[in-house]
Amino acid sequence: MLRDKNLVPLSRQHQHALALCVRIERASPIEESKLLQWQTEMAQQFEAEIKIHFSAEEQTLFPAARRFVELSSLVDELLGEHASLRACFTKAEAGQMRSDEITDFARKLSEHVRKEERQLFERLQQLLPAEEMDRMGGELDRALENASQTCSLPTPKQ
Question: Residue 151: what pLDDT?
């Protein structure tokens, strides 16, 4: 199914997160000398985009989805994943992640994004009437206006 235009800004940000995940996968196992560099990049992407993205979902998208009983448990799962991912970003910001933890983080973030895209977005755009989807899209645009709108560039090789 095509993505509703009102969800495209979130999907675009999902692509940015997935790009980070792919780069981490390709670099794994991450060398000890590169750990801090990767953690810095993770923390920067969280501050520039993901933190705002999570907030927009939690304040706008998830309440809209909760109106539908069939999506309630999925929203609970996604909120739990947000909490777990935030903890990873906090640990990365402190420079306390091991190589295997960074790789595990990338897997979790990738799975989370795919769950939102394939399950939540698909079903929500089937259930929510067009005028409500448009209203929600306006709210999402306002919530996301301070987020970075560009994909992070790969970390330079040293």
Answer: 46
